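From the methods appendix. Each design record in this collection lists the tokenized structure first, followed by the designed amino acid sequence. Records were kept in a plain field format so they could be parsed without special tools. The example shown here is representative of the layout used throughout.

RECORD:
FOLD TOKENS (421 positions):
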């Protein structure tokens, strides 16, 4: 059975069963058909569908309170500012930060990582220093570090994984040294689902005085996350992968680090005063929020968090673990299917290949059957290279999926095999 390791999350109470009929009714898009067949949506690691609560929250912004935030004295501006900052508070409580000001709204996890790489990394890395990432990283947690290493003369080091896609912690320990300045690692793999022991990763890095960034894009929607328990220095995630609108994301940073960092962008909102002689920057978190932000996106993110918490993240984690177990059991019954990434600790993601059939062909036939999956390298080409495949087919599940969805997936795969036999 693949499960989420409780040591990576907040202490979880006993799970309560989810009301799947009610939940599925909360997501209007699940009622549509594709190619005259009921939609089975199994591409949640790429982006999640949006519940009515989020859709209504964004609609309410445009219909009833649309205005720019901060400094406005008229009623619409005040109401919109309150809703925007209330969303920040919800994020802070979701991941248990010490202060709301440690939450910076960005466009997504990608911008959050680039912000840290350029604002923190570029000012702290020197020639000969080292940055450590893992083999499983999304390109968004590789390329920004390559760029900053080129700019500073630092070197990128990579932690290997075993045949099941588990991080080799002993090899990670060997890479750590007095030269290690930054460790940037995912919490869970978007391509294979592996859950990384981030608390241990952080503790070991801190023993060498390194700063730790965790990419939580594939974690916060699946199980509770406590950044103070992990003790990471930075944590990033994207709204659209957790049932919120696109174009909104979160960077968490410890207050002292954020205070020490120069602004990432200049413009309005991130200033206290401007003259041609000098600019005085704003307080946290506004120092890093230049320009008009994605106001409706942040408010939608707040609504998504409220929705997730109404279901209970421990309940979601327990249900998705069972769904993953069922899907794994069903797919392994198909002789032609080979799973890529079978770590013991996983979120609800299954990557697979079918002997003799390109993943894109699999995805095309499945689409004809109304089943939506993702095919390709999943922005994780080094991961694909590690396992000797150009691409995989990936089914990523969440709490609105059912065993019937998995049965449809299996039937569609079997049909694909017959088509290409």
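DESIGN:
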């Amino acid at each position: 059975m693949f499960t989420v390791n409780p040591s990576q999350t907040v202490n979880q109470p006993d799970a309560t069963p989810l009301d799947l009929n009610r939940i599925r009714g909360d997501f209007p898009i699940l009622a549509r058909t594709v190619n005259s067949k009921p939609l089975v949506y199994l591409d949640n690691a790429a982006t999640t569908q949006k519940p009515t609560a989020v859709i209504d929250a964004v609609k309410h912004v445009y219909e009833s309170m649309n205005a720019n935030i901060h400094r406005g004295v008229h009623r619409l501006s005040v109401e919109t500012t309150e809703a925007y900052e209330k969303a920040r508070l919800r994020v802070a409580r979701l991941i248990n930060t010490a202060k709301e000001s440690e939450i910076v709204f960005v466009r997504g996890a990608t911008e959050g990582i680039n912000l840290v790489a350029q604002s923190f990394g570029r000012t702290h890395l020197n020639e000969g220093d080292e940055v450590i990432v893992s083999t499983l990283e999304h390109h968004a947690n590789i390329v920004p570090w390559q760029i900053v290493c080129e700019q500073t003369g630092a070197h990128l080091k990579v932690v290997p994984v075993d045949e099941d896609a588990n991080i080799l912690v002993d090899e990670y320990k060997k890479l750590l040294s007095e030269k290690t300045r930054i460790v940037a690692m995912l919490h869970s793999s978007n391509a294979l689902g592996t859950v990384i022991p981030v608390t241990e990763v952080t503790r070991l890095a801190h023993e060498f005085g390194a700063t730790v960034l965790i990419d939580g894009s594939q974690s916060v929607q699946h199980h509770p996350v406590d950044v103070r328990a992990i003790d990471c220095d930075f944590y990033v995630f994207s709204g659209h992968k957790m049932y919120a609108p696109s174009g909104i994301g979160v960077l968490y940073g410890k207050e002292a680090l954020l205070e020490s960092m120069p602004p990432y962008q200049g413009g309005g909102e991130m200033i206290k005063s401007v003259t041609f002689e000098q600019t005085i920057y704003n307080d946290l978190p506004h120092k890093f929020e230049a320009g008009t932000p994605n106001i409706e996106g942040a408010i939608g993110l707040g609504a998504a968090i409220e929705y997730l918490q109404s279901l209970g993240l421990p309940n979601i984690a327990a249900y998705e673990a069972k769904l993953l177990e069922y899907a794994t059991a069903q797919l392994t019954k198909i002789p032609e299917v080979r799973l890529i990434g079978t770590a013991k600790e996983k979120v609800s993601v299954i990557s697979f290949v079918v002997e003799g059939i390109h993943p894109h062909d699999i995805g095309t036939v499945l689409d004809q059957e109304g089943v939506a999956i993702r095919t390709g390298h999943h922005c994780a080409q080094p991961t694909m290279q590690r396992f000797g495949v150009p691409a995989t087919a990936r089914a990523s599940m969440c709490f609105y999926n059912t065993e019937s969805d998995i049965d449809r997936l299996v039937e569609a795969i079997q049909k694909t095999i017959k088509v290409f036999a």
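APPENDIX NOTE: The chain has 14 helices and 17 strands.
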